[in-house]
Amino acid sequence: MNRSLSTSDERRITVIESAIAVFAKSGYLGTPIAAVAKHAKISTAYVFKLFPRKEELFVAALERAFELVQTALSDGVVKSADRTPEGILYSMGGAYAALIANRDLLMIQVHAMSVADVPEIGAAYRSGIQRIAKFTKSKSGASDEAVQRFFAYGQLCHLITTISLDSNSATWARMLTNGIRH
Prior knowledge:
There is one protein chain. The chain is mainly α. It has one domain (7-177): Tetracycline Repressor, domain 2 (Orthogonal Bundle). Helix content is 75%, strand content 0%. It has nine helices and no strands. It has helices at 7-26, 33-40, 44-50, 54-79, 85-99, 103-114, 119-140, 144-162, 171-177. Helix 4 (54-79) crosses helix 5. 29% of the residues are buried.
C-alpha cells in the first residue's frame, strides 16, 4: 500500500537533509538554525516548529547519516561475491568508502565527535555506532577483533579523507594511506 507523506513529513525530511549539508560545513557550534532554514528554503520559525532545539535537529541529522551508513553496509553485504566474513567486511568497506565520498556524511560524523560532550549528541553518536557495530558483526559473521579492525580502518579513512592525505605525497602520508580505500 502506497502512502504519501504529509507536507510536514516532507518538510521534515528536507530540513534533515539540509541540516546534514549545513552542519557538515560549519559544525554544530558554528551553524545557526537560520542557515539550515535558508538551505531548506523554509522559515526559521518552521524549522523550530519541527525541531524546537538545535540539539534535536543535529541529532536527527546524525541519525539520518547513520541510516545511510547502514544502508550502504547492507548493500555491501548483498554485493559481496566472497561470502566469508573477511570478504563481506571488505565489500562493506568498499560500500562505506563510496558513501563517504559525499563529504557531508563524513563531516557530520566528524562534527558529532567534536561535540559528543553535549549529552543528546553523545548519546546519539554512541547509539549510531552501537547500531552499526552490531549490524556489521551480525551481517558479516566476523570475529570481534575483525569488526574492531574494520572500525579502526574506517576511522583512518575518515582521517585520510578529512585532511586530504591521499593527495599528499610525503612519506608519512603515503605510509598512512597505503592500501586504504577511502
